[in-house]
Amino acid sequence: MFYFCSSKDLYMSSLNVSSYPESLHILAGSFRSLSLFLLAFSPAKRTLSLVHQVPGYGPHQYVTTDRDKMRSLRRQADGKLDGSIAYTTSWAVPPILSSWEITPEWQINHLDNVPITAVSSYITLPPPYTHIYSMGGPTGEVHLRSPQTGSFAEKVQEVLFVPSEKLADTDKSRKALRYGSHAIEFTHIPGTNTRLAFVPVLGTNSIEVYNPDSGYLTHVYSSPSPRHGVNDGPRHVKIHPNGKMLYCVTEHNNLLDVYSISEREQTNSTETESTWSTNPLTHLGTRSLLPPHLSYPNAPMKTVHRFRGDTLMLGPGTEEGQLPTEIWATTRGTTEADRGWISVFKLDNAGMFIPSPSSNEISSAEEGVERYETPTSGGKAHAIDLYPKSVTSYYSSPFTASNSTRTGSPVWILLTDDSDYAAGELREESSATETIKAGKPLGGVRVLEWDGWLSDGVREVVGWPSGTDEERGEPMRGGSHAVWLTTQGDLD
């Protein structure tokens, strides 16, 4: 197992870590294997190792868990609950969704598979935790959640993004994810009865808006891209914990848009309960996912199109329950020669970018943003998940302790990499980084770290597999998506 050395290593070895968890567990999928992989990251030793290779039904593109539900129940019960449930999408043919039990002893047991119409790229279990929603390509699915096992129960709705009469002849494979639906997120605006769900659809350059009050999704509005006539390709959305701000990554032009979410206006018109006469989303501003020299208009669009806007995630806040101070986003290269980017943007208490850009232009200022150029393109991956360093207390170092001006929420960053380099298929190319040229494998799943603003920026910590690890079962050849399984409540 390999790791990237840091100036903190000697300091970390002197810490008394007996009061901290030995490992943070991770569940990862791969585009190039059928299995799931349970990994363990040691913050103290800065190592990443395989716990179990789990025979699966992949390739598993996306992984999620019921960790938000578990946090909610822990707060209510003031105690710990045993185990959790994971849900995965798959590129299998015919398409399926799967559920998995994760025991307190870190055993992973398959619960069930359910058939779906088209390959899915996203799955989520929002409050009140009764329905499981998945989206991908021309369709979306709504399943009841079994209250006994947490697995899938009855399928109660299929959501269409093409006319019903065209569905039979529509591509339902993973290729349809390039121009169909790609995600779903939910909000309940505090102090109101307004509940909404948002689905970005690449091919229509729109965010489709739904009323989810009954558990079923009722379409109420199609919110178009703020740049009329431009093929943005909205791909991934997240909603601020205040319920009033939505963020959207566009795949085709590598932008991060922020919108305010409005409650429904009361009118005396003939407007029905199933439609809105006004757009619930108001565009507030845009930041580029690429540094200025690669962003339009400083660079031509053919340069921008060398990258694809990928995923985004709100930071965890400095402590559990606190509002995020950052939002993170990634791009991946369209070829192996184009390296990807991780960007972190500073947010104010309301969830707006700092500094606040005009809604009519793309901010080219680099104030309030830090960027990290990844060693590879990322392949089809470059998904991220974040874990707060404040929980493990490992981010303290002589550097952070001596600089009280540093702000932000330090995090461990999970990054997946599907590039040929990460998969072990090294090539001699002039664009390769020194790490790649030296023949050091990067790993399909990597842990990076960030200690806040004015620190040393984003840094690589460790990756798996290293190329020297003993292989057990089906090997991972590049990662697709990985999530932290350990929640903050597990460490209380």
UniProtKB/TrEMBL annotation:
Q: Where is this region: Disordered?
A: 465-492
Q: Which Gene Ontology molecular function entries are recorded, alphabetically?
A: 6-phosphogluconolactonase activity
Which InterPro entries does the record match to this protein? Answer: Cycloisomerase_2 (IPR050282), Lactonase_7-beta_prop (IPR019405), N2O_reductase_N (IPR011045), WD40/YVTN_repeat-like_dom_sf (IPR015943)
Coiled-coil residue windows: none
Q: Which domain of life is it from?
A: Eukaryota
Q: List, alphabetically, the SUPFAM superfamilies matched.
A: Nitrous oxide reductase, N-terminal domain
Q: Which family does it belong to?
A: Belongs to the cycloisomerase 2 family.
Identification of the protein by name: 3-carboxy-cis,cis-mucoante lactonizing enzyme
Species assigned in the record = Lentinula guzmanii
